[in-house]
Design goal:
Layout (H helix, E strand, L loop, with lengths): L3 E2 L7 E4 L25 E3 L8 E4 L2 E6 L8 E2 L4 E2 L25 E6 L5 E2 L3 E6 L5 H14 L7 E3 L10 H15 L4 E8 L7 H8 L7 E5 L6 H16 L5 E4 L4 E6 L10 H14 L3 E4 L9 H5 L5 H20 L10 H5 L5 H8 L8 E5 L9 E5 L5 H10 L4 E6 L11 E5 L2 H6 L6 E2 L2 H4 L4 H16 L25
Parallel strand pairs: 10-11, 10-12, 12-13, 15-16, 15-19, 16-18, 17-18, 19-20, 20-21
Antiparallel strand pairs: 1-2, 2-3, 3-6, 4-5, 5-7, 8-9, 8-14
Helix pairs in contact: 1-4, 2-3, 2-10, 5-13
Amino acid sequence: MISVLQIHPKDNVAVALRPLSKGELPSPLQFPLLDDIPAGHKIALQDIPAGDKIIKYGNPIGHARKNIRQGMHVHTQNVASDLEGLLEYTYTPSFEDIKPAEEEAFFWGYPRPDGKTGIRNEIWIIPTVGCVNAIAKEIEKKAKLLCPDAPDGIYAYSHPYGCSQLGGDLLHTQKALCGLIRHPNAGGVLVLGLGCENNTLESLKEVLGEYDPRRVKFLLCQECDDEVSEGAALVQELCEYTKTFRREKRPASELVVGLKCGGSDGFSGITANPVVGGLSDFLASYGGTSILTEVPEMFGAEQLLMNRCRNRQIFEKLCGLINGFKSYFLRYGEKVDENPSPGNKAGGITTLEDKSLGCVQKSGSSPVEDILLYGDPVQQKGLNLLEAPGNDLVASCALAASGAHMVLFTTGRGTPFACPVPTLKISSNTELARKKKQWIDFDAGRLLSENLNMADLSRELFELVLSVASGEKKAKSEELDKSGIAIFKDGITL
């Protein structure tokens, strides 16, 4: 059994599939190791002079800080990033359309009057401002007593924003909240305001646009004698409304799936991310939609995505997205390569290019159909790219706000967090899946541990997604507290 994997024929490094010892001659290498190599970390396949590129996934992930000998451990001690600030890009189209699936695929969802379909039939209580978070929780408690038969549950969400915000920073909060208010997984929504915040109900409604008063209710706490009782009464009305919906057979073309990774390791770009990329392509073949985010984790791999843009207009929007996010870093005096995290490095990821080239594997091979700014609702079928940071909670909530029914979250280190939509955790290694059964929904590490076929695993994951969408299974994160909303903040606080 092989112990070392060269991912691409052009690579001058390989990845250790298990912990390796100095002096060992692991298969299929023809030379002994000069260092101990942890699992997921890189080995030099040849002598690499100082200044030469380190090649992984067939692309540069940085350069050698000093001479690296064949068989050495290749990591942060001898590799540096090549990432720079703002760049000019060239559009060199290189993509093929995904072949339409010959058979049909379905899930059981809740058709909504606006033409969307939900995969859950929940009631959401959404505060306009952090000042009323505790009131929202009290309304949730009382409403659960009044509505014990609420279809899929009553959930009050919390966040610290909505006041002392200005301009684009306030707009970020409003767009995120409005995306959740519109989300089809919520059969009914109570929007809870205080009355003196910057994020007034009037200004929020301007961002929200048209809404169904049967589905969305508003309450200002400062105008109530007993805001908890009045709020619970409104939730009772919403509960009766949500009971009118029933699951119906819906085509997979109506599914929207968010793509995210976190706590990545050296196996993420080999197993979990490509398996999710295969699912993304499967979904595209059925006319469905996927959304990839984490813009900083596109740095170093952006040209690959740019070459897959459907047309020049989308390419130019992607250039703006990448350089715009780099400008955000530079505006605060930060380096654009201030990544990966300590956990990523411990798992074998060396530079941001290394992380990004693994990260974008989640996008499969589909053409890029649209670029979304933070909080924008998804409109185009197929693969979309969304403006959001790499932070797990912020990015996952951004995917939900843009309309993702669920988030597929790949991880090599493990994480228990939940967000408003079902969040399936997909492990890059079998050891994690065995250790954290209470967190992990799908073990993509079986690609290596059981020598399974990539396409078969992607198909298996697709079937799991359809099952979760149909309510036949729940994501393990749905059993945890999903009440927090993490919003992208970029501005001063008054």
